[in-house]
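We emphasize that the prediction below concerns an isolated chain of 696 residues; any contacts that depend on oligomerization or on bound cofactors are therefore not represented. The input was used exactly as deposited, without trimming of termini.
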Amino acid sequence: MKIILQNNEQDCLLACYSMILYHYGREISVYDLYDKDMIPPDGLSVSYLKNLNVKNNISMKAFKISDKSAINLFDNFRFPVIVQWKKKHFVVVQKISKKKVTIIDPEIGRIKLTLEQFLNNFSNYVISLSPDEHFKEVKKKSLIYEPLKKTFINKNIFGYIVSILLAQAVALFFSIFIKNTLDQKYNLLVSIMLIIFLIIIQIVSFYIKQVSQQKTNILFEKEVSKKLFEGLLSRPILYFRNNTIGTIIEKINLKTGIRDSILFQLLPSILNFLSMFSLILYLGFISLYLTITLILLSLFYLGITTFLYVAKLQSNMNYLQKTIDLASTTQEDLSQIDQIKAQAIENKITKKWYKKSKETIEPYNHMLKIDSISSAFGQIYNYIGVIIIIIMGLYFNRLGIIKFSDLILFQSGIMMMFSVMLQIQNAAFEASRISIYSSKIEDLFTPSPLIQHFVDPSSEYSIVTNKISYSYDDKINVFNNVSISIKKGEKIAIVGDSGSGKSTLLHVLLGLYSYKGEITYGYKNFRKNLGVVLQNMTLREGTIIENLVDINDPIDFSRIKKVLKDTNIDMLIDSLPNKIYSNLFQNGKNLSGGQIQRLLIAKSLMQPDGIIFWDEAFSSLDNKNRTNIYNKVLINTNYKENTIILVSHHLDVLEYVDRIIFINNGSVYIDRHKNLCLSNRDYQEFLNISQVTYKR
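Result of the prediction step, given as a token string:
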């Protein structure tokens, strides 16, 4: 059964669902199961799964097994099934036997558990999925195959293959050289010349390998890395909201693991395996009996080490699961560190962490035990294998079948054979890992389509919307058929109750969320004329001026000075030793929240005639600084060419803007504050609830 890993904690159920679809022949990735690049605000509800079932022609049944001891109830299910795990996670149960349960955890992979371990984590709920009469198999072409093909199937890889074959040939001919030297076939001069020749071949092999690897790496960056970056950055903003930075970085880093596995494991293993056949053929001409003995020893070695390798892999999975539990616990507690410190419960948290950490000891010791057994077996078997070959060789030598010098060749052969067997094991594991890694990142190799909009630079309006609608699940609209026109230079505030869709509307107007309808911008280069402060934005590591403008473009220092003064951040910057060239830490950690927000607001104002979007840009400002921006920016003629559209829960801003966009229960109204107060009863109630008094 194909293993599909989750992208984050939220989509573990989708990963399990995808694995079931693959099992029945419908190859649909986790990303393809997403609706609009995000999981709905209420999570993976039953209605969400029902929609997936309709799209994929799947019948679903859910069960609750109250009595965990009734494990025999699983006999009634058609495997694989999805079960709830640890009350907050989902895994696929692939098989249940009398003593073992095989599950696939989308967080780490395939694991074999005892019945006791399974029942301790099983949370009673089972989801059974099966194809209905309309189900059709769908084969999906791997999107990462072509970039990898262009990278690794070319003349560069031919050079890499030649280098490995030369290195293998040197190793083989060196053993032959030792054999012939013992047989006194070479004089001193010939021996020296052959040694020099082998060294030269080895150096040439190393040089070819280095050049081929370097060229392959360059091609890999072009064909794989660049396309992955393009695909990733083409994703809508909801994709990044639904995935943590750590998850995205992990995806990016997987490409390196794929490259290294192919270059350093798969290719050498394949070539060494082919070289092994050449070695067997050569040794067979010398002594068929010793060669057969060598093959049998190698196959026995492969069987035992494969068994130990699988056991070690399973033990590693169990250890990984425990370390993930520990990491999850510590991460959850650290996110509440303020409360922990305030309540002085450090000892309680320490005990909990210590308990979780102790649970990792047993699987870790078991892993070390198997590793020690495997290492000891390899060493012992090497000795025994060599002894067996020597004993049999001496016997055949007495019979006159082989020469004593041939034993040197067979001794080298057994070492090479054992090495190749280990490489074959690693190659099988790497091939499986490449498949899993590729599945996790291949969706990024198809760029997402751009959100379409229209441009009319000659228009007097900054933004004109024509019947735009937005919904999270294509059923309930956050707002519907909204048509508004915002003139260039207008200052607009979007207000409404919490959760009414204020930020959503701003993101749609900004062109960050997909929508139905049409939006026309009154700027030729809308994005270049844009200033923006969103809730998740912060400062980057670098100088202050690097955070304010693109230093590669012409810099208007008079504009910078004016904006910094109007946002009341100029005095802070002047107090720093290097002024505007002072360095900021990552995320602006050497500044306060209010100072960061004022710098972000200043950055958004650098375009003299641009359109500006602020989403709760005043949330960290005190009354003095907020009022200062109202007076120095919103009603300042220096910014009369700037269109400003803002979302704020500070309703005192309504006195300083030209018009209000009021959102209430999916309806959107736009008018002057005074007119809305007179004509819109919902707006009146909204203001009364907010307990705000206005001058006009």
